[in-house]
């Protein structure tokens, strides 16, 4: 999970400009984003029949309740198939708003001396140019092919109807129930309490329960503590995410002890620290669980490839590109897939997946 809030300058600037009432061009970018969020809310309300979703247009990221709505729709195969069939009109309207947002972001990047928004974010996130170049030279695809080979023996013979079709975002790891997943307490004991380097932080890592599936680590400069907000879960993906957030937590504590500015380090550096903790946990798992845990790396490369493609050439069909991304990185049998509009990463943390993709190259 990205360690900080979205710092998309188009969205931040749009909110600020709307507040002070200047620059019509900036307000247009802001209106594009706001329309998109409103469409998402409207669609998610209709799909899930929930009536009490609230969005503050003064924030640059999704509110927690909308994230939860998106996650529930995004991970339910049956719901996704039904939703796309019944609500194609709203999906199409969301596509238009998303496309406009891509153009607005590219325009911002060009105003700041970059060819496109993806390259702008590479610079902002601090991704080493040499690693990005390596990823573009088919190394990302080769890494994905390696992970696919590891996972192929675990694909069930009987899959849900439509699993590989355009009505789905496939997720192999969620099909398994007969796997051993350590509890949160066991993970914490392994990675923190029993570790010579990190055990001194035991009393300074606070856990808070929350209904949101995705854990997130934050820090409190006053108390000099790190807080991990999460829900209890027995899913493999959640265990790996928790280990990742522990990596962020101990990094925050180290920097606070040194009186270093946590925000001074760029996103790539922060994720590198968290990724190391995550890898340590994954490598400690039994063989089957260890290999299944690598499944999410396919989506690092899939998302990164998709965003690199859409910002490099905005004339391409986004649904076709998303299907091609699945074909390339996830055994996909799709030719058209409009479900990129239901992935909040593309809105909340644009181009962030390239960080994980280049870090994942080092795992092979």
Explain this structure to me?
With 364 residues, the chain is mainly alpha-helical. It has 2 domains: 9-177 and 293-361, no CATH class; 184-285, Arc Repressor Mutant, subunit A, CATH 1.10.10. The protein has 15 helices and 3 strands. It has helices spanning 9-20, 24-48, 64-74, 77-86, 88-111, 117-125, 129-151, 184-193, 236-257, 267-282, 287-293, 295-312, 318-329, 345-348, 353-361; strands at 205-209, 216-220, 225-230. β2 and β3 (225-230) form a beta hairpin. α2 packs antiparallel against α5, α5 crosses α6 and α12 packs across α15. The two termini are 21 Å apart. Mean pLDDT is 77; it is low at 9-33 and 43-67.
Summarize the structure.
By secondary structure, the protein is mainly alpha-helical. It has helices at residues 9-20, 24-48, 64-74, 77-86, 88-111, 117-125, 129-151, 184-193, 236-257, 267-282, 287-293, 295-312, 318-329, 345-348, 353-361, and strands at 205-209, 216-220, 225-230. The protein has two domains: 9-177 and 293-361, no CATH class; 184-285, Arc Repressor Mutant, subunit A.
- Stretches with pLDDT under 50, minimum 5 residues: 9-33, 43-67
- Rounded mean pLDDT score: 77
Share in β-strands: under 5%
Distance between the first and last residues' Cα: 21 Å
Summed up, the helix count is 15
* Total strands: 3
- Rg (C-alpha, Å): 20 Å
Give the proportion of residues in helices. Answer: 55-70%
* Strand and helix order: HHHHHHHHEEEHHHHHHH
Shape: globular
- Structural class by secondary-structure content: mainly alpha
Largest sheet strand order: 1-3-2
Largest sheet: 3 strands, mixed
Count structural domains.
2
């Amino acid at each position: 999970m990205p360690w900080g809030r979205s710092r998309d300058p188009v969205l931040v600037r749009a909110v600020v400009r709307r507040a002070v009432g200047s620059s019509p061009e900036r307000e247009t970018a802001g209106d594009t984003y706001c329309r998109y969020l409103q469409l998402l809310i409207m669609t998610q309300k209709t799909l899930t029949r929930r009536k009490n979703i609230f969005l503050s247009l003064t924030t640059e990221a999704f509110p927690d309740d909308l994230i939860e709505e998106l996650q529930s729709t995004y991970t339910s195969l049956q719901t996704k198939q039904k939703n796309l069939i019944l609500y194609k009109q709203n999906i199409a309207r969301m596509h238009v708003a998303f496309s406009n947002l891509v153009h607005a972001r590219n325009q911002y990047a060009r105003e700041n001396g970059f060819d496109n928004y993806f390259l702008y974010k590479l610079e902002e996130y601090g991704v080493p140019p040499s690693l990005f170049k390596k990823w573009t030279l088919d190394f990302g695809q080769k890494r994905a092919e390696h992970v696919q080979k590891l996972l192929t023996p675990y694909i069930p013979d009987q899959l849900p109807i439509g699993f590989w079709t355009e009505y789905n975002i496939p997720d192999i790891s969620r099909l398994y129930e007969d796997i051993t997943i350590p509890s949160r307490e066991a993970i914490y004991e392994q990675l923190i309490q029993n570790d010579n380097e990190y055990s001194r932080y035991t009393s300074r890592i606070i856990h808070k329960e929350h209904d949101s599936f995705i854990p997130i680590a934050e820090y409190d400069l006053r108390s000099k503590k790190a807080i991990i907000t999460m829900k209890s879960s027995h899913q493999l993906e959640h265990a790996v995410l928790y280990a990742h957030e522990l990596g962020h937590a101990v990094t925050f504590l180290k920097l606070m002890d040194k009186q270093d500015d946590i925000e001074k380090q760029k996103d790539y550096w922060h994720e590198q620290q968290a990724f190391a903790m995550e890898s340590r946990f994954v490598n400690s798992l039994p063989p089957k669980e260890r290999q299944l845990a690598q499944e999410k790396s396919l989506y690092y490369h899939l998302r990164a490839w998709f965003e690199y493609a859409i910002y490099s050439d905005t004339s391409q069909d986004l649904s076709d590109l998303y299907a091609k991304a699945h074909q390339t990185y996830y055994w996909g049998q799709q030719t058209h897939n409009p479900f990129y509009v239901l992935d909040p990463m593309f809105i909340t943390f644009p181009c962030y997946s390239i960080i994980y993709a280049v870090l994942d190259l080092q795992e092979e």
